[in-house]
Amino acid sequence: xxxxxxxxxxxxxxxxLIGSILPRPIAVVSTLNExxxxxxxxxxxxxxxxxxxxxxxxxxxxxxxxxxxxDTPRNIFREKEFVINILSESIVEKVNKTSMELPYGDDxxxxxxxxxxxxxxxxxxxxxxxxxxFECIYRDHLSYGDQPxxxxxxxxxxxxxxxxxxxxxxxxxxxxxxRPIGRGVGNDYFRCTDVFELARLMKAQIQK
Length: 208
Ligand SMILES: Cc1cc2nc3c(=O)[nH]c(=O)nc-3n(C[C@H](O)[C@H](O)[C@H](O)COP(=O)(O)O)c2cc1C
Known about the structure:
The protein is an alpha+beta fold and 208 residues long. 19% of the residues lie in helices and 32% in strands. A hairpin with a 5-residue loop joins strand 2 and strand 3. The radius of gyration is 18 Å and the shape is globular. The mean pLDDT is 96. Bound molecules: flavin mononucleotide (FMN).
């Protein structure tokens, strides 16, 4: 087995992290810039944390190019709110474009040909093309340093959820209709087209 300590270059740790923890769901996070324009960026270090209160988390790292904070956390710390839009297959190419480092204040919705629409409870806008939107109020932040490669965790309390009717059946989201996309290592993405079911064994079933 290849074994290594983690005190070398951050890039070595990073490439094995993203090659090991996958497929990762993708949060497309929209925030407001200081002048009220929109910012949009994908984050695959992303997970659900709590059902009630409904909390979700994602992890922006310090920019490796400049050693500074990314625009998304900068906006969240000022505005205290953000929207997480879930990525589906039909928009992956456009969303991929929003990961480009544009100058602060440039609107990634416009740049990528995506459509901002008003949220109900917060000022940050939702992405019309996404089939699920979570309107979030900023809750907590943990930072693991201020050098390139250092990550952080931002959590948000979801105060409003929007789900497209077309992906619902009997009040549940149907994965094959959502067609979510996952992130892998390097430039890899995953389609969820090979879903299978496995019943979870409850204690009573195991003891039979
Ligand atoms: C699919 C995908 C997933 C990404 N996930 C992350 C992530 O989890 N954390 C991170 O810091 N950057 C991630 N990035 C890079 C950011 O999207 C990129 O740095 C972006 O420019 C940040 O935008 P901002 O400065 O407007 O916040 C990802 C990029 C792509 C294409």
